[in-house]
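User:
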Amino acid sequence: MASADSDPAIRLQHFATRLIRIARSTHKEHALSSAQYSVMALLNDRPGMSVVELARREGVAHPTMSRLIAGLVKRNFVSRAVDPADKRSGLLRLTTAGAKLYREVAERRIMLFRMLLSQLSPAAIAEILAVVDRLTGTVETAFQNN
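Assistant: Predicted structure:
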């Protein structure tokens, strides 16, 4: 195995691991897992998704997503409504409490990234965002095929 100093993939993996750990700390006090935060982010952006659609988008099995949603419903962060088009399916939305918590945690995460980006030049930021845009499709495709 190449050393962390010479292998860009190892360096990126180490950075990503640290960044994820720091990002998780923004919602630790709320006993909110990264998976729960991710689902809340999706529901914030696209209210009315079903468990099946969330599971597909998150790359997890339906039972896993059902358990995750049940926990969020129990804590009154997510509500279910019957889908008028398919009575067997539920449409999920953030509750008022869930939306408030999501905004609070998201703002903390955004502040973290603003702090990191403030150390870079506008050209470096533009380059990073261009790379992120190119890799996003690859990551989404790979994630949904697992």
